[in-house]
Amino acid sequence: MRVAVISDSHGNTRAMERLAALLHGKGISLVLHLGDDYRDLAFLTSRGLEVIGVPGVYCPEYADARIPNRRLVELAGVKLFLTHTDSRHRHDRPGDPDPQEAAWEADLILYGHTHVPALEERESGFWLNPGHLKAPMDRGQPATYALLTLNGREAEVEIRRLEDDGLVLSRTLSLPA
Predict the structure, then answer these.
(1) Nearest partner of 54 among 77, 32, 76, judged by Cα
(2) CB under 8 Å to 132, separation ≥6 — which residues?
(3) pLDDT tens column, 92-119
(4) Is CATH 3.90.1710.10 the right assignment for the domain spanning 2-174?
(5) Residue-wise burial string across 141-160, b where 16 or more C-beta atoms lie within 10 A, e elsewhere
């Protein structure tokens, strides 16, 4: 199963149009959106993509108890934890799980907020940040997104530049049993 992971789109419709075209060309229809802006889920859905997401800490939806700020989803037998931040935040609602604690329940933790793409192995597991789609450059980083290929207990991770679809990082992860 192949899915895209994005964060910090901040209403940038030009970037989301480019992303939708790239994903349709690759035969990918599912996007995991890690916040900022939550309203961008509707834009992506209107472009024929299925979207699962969480709001960013500064989105009005972050305060809405009907919308989960953090989610554990299972795709192709892989447990993915979706969060905007990789730690607690002052805007968290009572009862929001601490990402550092919830990470132990997941095979792969997906977060955003920093606008900096990253893939790192921490004691609790693999943490992936796809970067941002806010602008062509933000915080010294080009716009990027991630592709996940989930296959049993392996996950192939690619981080790609939005502008030219160039590969920034590629790694195959062996997920815990």
Answers:
(1) 32
(2) 7, 8, 9, 10, 112, 115, 138, 139, 141, 143, 144
(3) 999 999 999 999 999 999 999 999 999 9
(4) no
(5) bbbbbbbbebeeeebebbbb
